[in-house]
Every structure is written in structure tokens, then in C-alpha cells.
Please model this.
Amino acid sequence: MSLKDLLGGKGANLAEMTSVLDLPVPPGFTISTGACRDYMRSGWPEGLTDEVAKQVKKLEKAMGKGLGTPPIPFS
Model:
């Protein structure tokens, strides 16, 4: 929970589950609370779109699936 200020409560808990508790958490990424604060103050932060796209590509590679590509579960 030392990352709570950076990742928020849920993000910090997920990080702890994967690194400390070694629980099977699906791959993913967390947008920092700083980026969220920037958004609340002045809109979408510069560079965030590119960073999210980069992380989605890494996630797709890790999962061996493309986001939004068939077959889509529960559609």
C-alpha cells in the first residue's frame, strides 16, 4: 500500500496482489492519480493518449488477443 498516493487505492491493491501476495491477477495497467488530477484540473493530459496506446499494445501482446477484436466475450 506504499503506492496508494501514486496509484490510488485500487491500483495499489492490484500492485500488492501481484508483487507481494503473488496472486493471479490478469495483466493490466493503472493510470496514475497524478494523471487523473491533471485531467480534473485542465483536461486530458498531453502524452496520455500515446502512453495508453503503448500500454494497450503491451497488454494485447501479453494476452495474445486484440482489444475489441472478435471473438468478444459477453457481446
Summary: The chain has one domain: 4-63. The chain has a mean pLDDT of 87. Residues 9 and 16 are 11 Å apart (CA to CA). Residues 4-63 form one domain.
